[in-house]
Amino acid sequence: MLIGIPKEIKAHEYRVSLTPPSVRELISQGHQVLVQTGAGDGIGFHDQSYLDVGAKISNSAKEVFEKADFIVKVKEPQPEECKLLREGQILFTFLHLAADPIQAKGLMDSKCVAIAYETVTDSNGTLPLLIPMSEVAGRMSIQAGARCLEKFKGGNGVLLGGVPGVEAGKVVIIGGGVVGTNAARMAMGLEAQVTILEKSLHRLRELNLQFGSRLETVYSTVTSIDEHVSKADLVIGAILIPGSAAPKIITKAHVKNMRPGSVFVDVAIDQGGCSETSRPTTHDDPIYTVDEVIHYCVTNMPGSVARTSASALNNATLPYICKLANEGYKQALLGNHYFCEGLNVAFGHITHKAVADDLGYTYVSPEKAFEAA
Predict the structure, then answer these.
(1) Which CATH number applies to 131-299?
(2) pLDDT band for position 313 (cuts 50, 70, 90)
(3) Is 285 one of the catalytic residues?
(4) Pick from 233, 231, 237: nearest CA to 251
């Protein structure tokens, strides 16, 4: 199979979907790889490093999309990329369609087979391809929040760890999954006061066993959110419902009651955000203020630590890429229920129930979508 690697074109997205070692692995299994020139430049993987492992280099994205049977990306295809996709072509990338009806329509119009990293599941009930980026985003959320608390950014001037004789900053994390856990780990490392709000008692027990008295765990209710968010210096939104738009857990009233100069980092922004006051931002213009509360809502946070992120993502995605390339999409997906959960769009149909429900489309099973091909 001919696998294409286009250069990412989203603002300040430096990650590359396949690193040279991953390309070498695919070529060793009998596949061809076509890489757009400069695709890995942002993280030090230059064209020669791809040529050295047997890949071919293309001068344009158009050629990559035209020739490849299988497109592997990092971020969702931009409108101009959707127009390059064709019927039956495999696309494997982050999609986050529930919050992006325009992209969904573009993918449906192309009749490609679009598989989303973020909805692939496994037998443990986890999201194996989302976990690496959730780990990165969770850790970065504390870095970003700490910077925004500085006065020159408009923050309240609180140092999260405090100093001897001065109270440490208060960090409140909404959600105790992978993002929330990694955010808590970083915040505790800075010696902040950290609270996680979570609805799963099982998860709260796990967090308590893992971190002990260093972490305050609270069952998430409207009342507990009211109480803890209003006292926080930094709030992290770490809510995820696979495939669905994020629920608006933080209301305008919550934001209005937060301390002036406090910070809200919405890691759920890829799925529409978990606050009524959230809107997507970029690395060029990452923050804005609502009721004196700084909002950081960058949609590709891991892109700013692209070298680490690309390598971590490749470690997770490579086995799935090999499976698709070796078996073809029908056998690879229909033969594995968990992998098939990643299929969002096929031959003009929405094939993921949560995405279809959020976007108002009729859900079509993967089997029926493939039959109509």
Answers:
(1) 3.40.50.720
(2) very high
(3) no
(4) 237
Catalytic one of 31, 96, 228, 352:
96
Tokens of residue 45, six digits? 């993987």
Q: Do 7 and 31 form a contact (C-beta atoms < 8 A)?
A: no
What is the CATH number assigned to the segment(s) 2-120+306-371?
Answer: 3.40.50.720
For β-strands 170-174 and 263-266, DSSP reports them as: unpaired
What is the C-alpha separation between 63 and 75, in angstroms, rounded?
Answer: 19
Catalytic pick from 254, 270, 295, 349?
270
Domain regions of the chain by residue span: 2-120+306-371, 131-299
Buried b / exposed e over 332-343, threshold 16 CB at 10 Å, is bbeebeebbbbb
pLDDT digits (tens, 9 = 90+) for 19-71: 999 999 999 999 999 999 999 999 999 999 999 999 999 999 999 999 999 99
352 is catalytic: no
The predicted-structure confidence for 329-347, as pLDDT tens digits, reads as follows 999 999 999 999 999 999 9
pTM of the model: 0.86
Report d(CA 253, CA 268) in Å as an integer.
19
What's the angle, vertex CA 47, arms to CA 38 and CA 325, rounded to 5? 90
Helix (H, G, I), strand (E, B) or coil at 173: strand
